[in-house]
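Private note to self, pasted from the team thread so I don't lose it. Backbone tokens:
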């Protein structure tokens, strides 16, 4: 394994297919680095930042593995994370911004932190392509997933109560057991949030979005008579 330590600042290095599993690399900054096929399983990467890094080789389609890693307060910006595995990672204050996350597996991540007898949640995904990805079986209440593409994403048994999903694309999502009450869906596009199957109590919408909710019920909206 290449020599790295806490608080490393690394630019334009190739770490493809390296084994960082169970290692400790806290407070690092990686910019323009290659990590295709690298193994971060159960590593401690807390407070680390990845900027314009590649975690999937477009030729071999060999992704990195972050399963069960400590990703608390980790920031990915403008990274390629296509089909990367994040299953069961510690994810409180995990932040993705302008990332390619198609097919990434973020199921069963832990975004909670117990404080004074309560549990705070913190997870952010902004301006990302998360098409075909999975957020299944997660507690993401009050979290932020804004201006993202979630086409064909798996949200089965995901708790998004009170979450901010404004501006995101939710076409053809899998939503069995989805909790989305009190969420902000203003500016979202969607086609299969069936009010008969999913409670939409307290959900924030624009008037222009009502047709997408009415059509699955077989209702026809017409303008008021003059």
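Design output:
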């Amino acid at each position: 394994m290449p020599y790295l330590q806490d608080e490393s600042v690394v630019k334009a290095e190739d770490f493809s297919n390296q084994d960082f599993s169970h290692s400790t690399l806290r407070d690092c900054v990686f910019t323009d680095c290659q990590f295709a096929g690298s193994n971060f399983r159960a590593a401690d990467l807390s407070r680390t930042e990845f900027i314009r890094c590649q975690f999937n080789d477009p030729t071999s389609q060999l992704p990195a593995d972050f399963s069960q890693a400590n990703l608390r307060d980790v920031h990915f910006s403008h990274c390629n994370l296509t089909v990367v595995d994040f299953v069961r990672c510690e994810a409180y204050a995990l932040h993705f911004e302008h990332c390619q996350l198609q097919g990434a597996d973020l199921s069963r991540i832990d975004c909670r932190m117990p404080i004074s007898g309560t549990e705070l949640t913190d997870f952010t995904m902004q301006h990302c392509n998360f098409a075909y990805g999975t957020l299944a079986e997660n507690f993401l209440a009050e979290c932020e997933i804004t201006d993202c593409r979630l086409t064909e994403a798996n949200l089965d048994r995901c708790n998004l109560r009170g979450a901010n999903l404004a501006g995101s694309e939710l076409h053809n999502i899998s939503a069995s057991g989805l909790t989305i009450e009190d969420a902000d869906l203003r500016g979202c596009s969607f086609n299969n949030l069936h009010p008969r199957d999913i409670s939409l109590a307290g959900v924030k919408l624009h008037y222009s979005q009502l047709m997408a909710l009415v059509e699955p019920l077989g209702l026809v909206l017409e303008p008021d008579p003059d």
